[in-house]
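Q: Give me the 3D complex with flavin-adenine dinucleotide.
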Amino acid sequence: MSIRKVGRNLPSDLSRRHFLALGGGVAVASTLAACSAGAEGGTPAAGKDLRSAIRGRILLPGDEGFDLAARPWNSTIDQSVRAVAHIADADDAAALVRYAHSAGMSLAVQPIGHGASGAAEGTILVRTDQLDQLRIDAGARSARVGAGVSWNAVQAASAAANLTGAPGSSSAVSVAGYTLGGGLSWFGRKYGWAADNVKAFDVIDAQGRRLRATADTEADLYWALRGGGGDFALVTAIELELHPAPTLYGGRMLWPVQRAPEVLAAFRSVTGQAPNELTVWFSLFQFPKAPPMVGIDATYLGDAAEGSRLLRQFDDIGGRVSDTRSTMAFTALDSITTEPSTPTPSRHRAAFLADLDDAAVGKLLAEPVAPLLSVQIRHLGGALAEPSDSPASAISERYYIGFLGIQTKPDDAAAIQARSQKYLDALGPELIGRTPFTMLTPGQTARDAFSHDIIDRLREIKRARDPHGLFRSNYQVLD
Ligand SMILES: Cc1cc2nc3c(=O)[nH]c(=O)nc-3n(C[C@H](O)[C@H](O)[C@H](O)COP(=O)(O)OP(=O)(O)OC[C@H]3O[C@@H](n4cnc5c(N)ncnc54)[C@H](O)[C@@H]3O)c2cc1C
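A: Here is the predicted complex, encoded as structure tokens.
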């Protein structure tokens, strides 16, 4: 994790140390416990013939390295799988699909497991790390991205050609997992959902056939995969549209929480008139062993002079303790929010938020953030609200609200959940909308992410394309 202007960045440093401490210790302990329970708990192993069916590495329960390979990134999630398959390439992926089909087994494709929900129980877990191809075509402004590639690699390769993709707050997530779920990007207001930037998917379908899904071929698959998740096929590569990346300005400002009413008022005002190049997120923080804070995270697709002019209302708010804003590289986006890049035992909840009226502001500021680590409001609108023929379709809500807590002990999960729910209940159904698919959390289903029309169409495609339920995504559309 890179942190700029370290000397002025006390709360971010605190959060980093906290994440690292928890990610290193608690994560390992709780996941080892979960995995060993799963292995002993009797999920039958896949047949040994699986090893001869594919060329990639197969790990079965009891094999050295199995527990580690089966562990999801979010270590609070228990997933007891039959086997872990590191597929070697697209042909291997096809062989694995044919094997699973003939053996009556299901596949859970999980590049990293950021979104693991427990649904992979009893499946063959597919790891895509060897599908690591990445080719940038600067002239065509496109990238061909293997299913094992994360955003940090795409951003680095794109930046070398003065281009950018549409990553979110953490470039540690896989391009495939994030994009198949829609993908809410820093640059979404300008370029739409990450899924809106997909030109083609190379897939293995449930019959083991290699297909290419575009707007003109396998159009139903192309539609479903642009935001409906990975329930319909095994994606081996994605072709993405990239965008010009001349200059980027951004960073984080922090104040003591007593300034929250002023910061929120400025946030409402700035987001009320922001051009699509400007994205501003508001957060309330309770970093461990630190006073509560309020923060603004921002990116501006343009130069520092115009970016700081657009954000100047925040300069009038006194007491600022940290400001990391500067011209920044397109590869340095993660330094804004300093989210954990190592496995972290966290719980989250999120929803679209119709508006931030006075009543909503009052409810948000009424109570302390603890036991949560943060309450974050992201500004939406712009291209995210434009009509798009995909499951990640036009979002009319102006904002997104997300709650995050770190689970240091089992009881924390209930406390985090209860606190998040309290905020949601206070804001009420007239303001709280659906959950972005990539932000679903265990206990929710795909229905929580989609309108009736969209979930019905996704289900129809699932039944037609995968009638035996061979693919099992973290959040399945038939649930
Ligand atoms: C720190 C952090 C920050 C985040 N920030 C954002 C953000 O700003 N915006 C946002 O939208 N999301 C964000 N997310 C959520 C993230 O996008 C989802 O968790 C996403 O699912 C991660 O993808 P993954 O591959 O890493 O996870 P995994 O759990 O490994 O995969 C997720 C799902 O993707 C599908 N899938 C993945 N690859 C394939 C494939 N090759 N074929 C078929 N299906 C496949 C599977 O159905 C799987 O269930 C964040 C998550 C974290 C942990």
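A quick observation: Confidence is low (pLDDT under 50) at residues 1-44.
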